[in-house]
Design goal:
globular, 2 helices, mainly beta, 4-stranded antiparallel beta sheet, single chain, Neuraminidase, 252 residues
């Protein structure tokens, strides 16, 4: 499986006729289809996109018809274009050019559908570097262009592996190929310019790299640093130690 989409009742005619499914492939092809065409699924499935030889489906997003689309490349470039630049097609169509790859080794690593323009764009490279930039740092262009630099790719950073739309209310789950996962708050990442290298998000062991990045909602029940510092810890002799004052005055 490559992608899944959560929808409301597919029998709601107003809903299915006012939403679209946009798909992106690794070779930079995008395709937009009315959600209505998926409203009568069969038990053995229905064709969603005709994939060309040597290509494969990467992501699918639910859109409103007035969204903006970002595509990120392994080579460190990204493109921003209006969804309206992609005409609706039937389920059997292959799609149209969304972004031009840098070379044969390049590929699309992610797609973002933006509805809230107060959000930022976050990119992560395979060696653990990341960067948060304003959406407005990416100029609107026509579909099919080469894009603009979204992060400076070097041997130190490795290629781009993820692109997400984020806000301060989000957390990130970063999973390494070795199986280690960390969770971090987006609000801890300052906004910086598009063409910079970014900052180190996670320290990787030798020969390890980032496997996946997921955006998750911030858990308000999580203890923050202040909560932890003010917790009472029970010592071996059964007495309590206030971690905010670990050396209380003697009572003797």
């Amino acid at each position: 499986m490559k992608a899944f989409i959560c929808t409301r009742d597919l029998k709601d005619e107003d809903y299915v006729n006012s939403h679209y499914v946009i798909m992106a492939t690794k070779k930079g092809v995008v395709k937009k289809t009315p959600l209505e065409q998926y409203s009568r699924p069969r038990q053995n499935g229905i064709i969603a996109i005709n994939i060309r030889e040597g290509d494969e489906l990467l992501e699918a997003k639910l859109t409103t018809g007035s969204s903006e689309i970002f595509l990120g490349l392994k080579s460190g470039k990204a493109i921003r274009f209006e969804e309206s630049k992609t005409r609706p097609m039937g389920r059997n169509a292959s799609g149209v050019r969304g972004i031009t790859l840098a070379d044969e080794s390049d590929e699309v690593i992610g797609m973002v559908s933006v509805h809230n323009f107060d959000e930022d764009i976050l990119v992560v490279s395979e060696n653990g570097f990341g960067k948060r930039s304003s959406i407005e740092d990416y100029r609107l262009t026509n579909r099919g262009g080469k894009g603009v630099k979204t992060i400076s790719i070097t041997k130190k950073t490795g290629g781009l592996v993820a692109i997400k739309n984020v806000s301060d209310s989000d957390d990130l789950m970063i999973i390494n190929k070795s199986g280690i996962a960390i969770r971090m708050s987006v609000e801890d990442l300052r906004t910086m310019g598009r063409a910079t290298q970014g900052v180190k998000l996670i320290n990787l062991r030798e020969n390890d790299s980032i496997a996946a990045v997921a955006k998750v909602m911030k858990d308000e029940d999580d203890l923050d640093e202040t909560d932890i510092l003010n917790m009472e810890v029970e010592t071996e002799d059964g007495t309590s130690l206030d971690t905010d004052n670990p050396n209380p005055p003697s009572t003797s």
